[in-house]
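Section 5.1 Outputs to date
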Amino acid sequence: MYDAELVTYLRHISSRETAVMADNRRLTASRDDAGLQIDPEQGQLIALLLRLMGARRGIEIGVFAGYSSLWIAEALPPDGCLIACDSDAEITQRARADWARAGVADRIDLRIGPAMATLDAEIAAGMAGRHDFVFIDADKTGYLDYYERALALLAPGGLAIADNTLWHGRVIDPDDASADTEAIRAFNRRLRDDERVDLSLVPIGDGLTLARKR
């Protein structure tokens, strides 16, 4: 959305990225799938919002190399808990190592397996209405289902956060009818019309949707 020079200025003038975060991001940048990682300014905004909320307990759907988890865990109090859901045991080993380096590993409960199973297990365990936030950044065709589980798990005033909701501009490309693009369009329409939440789609990174449960 912004040219490279302006992004460089933005990060130079405002970034609070730690050394561990920066190392994690730079190493991931060399991968073909580096686009799965959030931008630093997204992580910093999420962390600020969680601190403003006094968040203590939440869920992340889609861990990848653990960069977003670092931002989230750093924003939680020492006794806070982030349930981190991912299906890739290999890439999350690097995430674990960086969480340990940052001193936040004890705040993160990594659950390997289908995220929907983890969310349903939380509901079955009586955790509905007891989480402060849910961050959704996983398979796009699953967004609507993740969102509905998130609303069930969030306390009133809790925050659902979703990445990639501008989807690299593909949401407005009339020639793009791919499953992922259609899923993001449907997700955005659902939230636009959902009276259960207060809503803002922030044009930062690839689009970050914030939905506060009423």
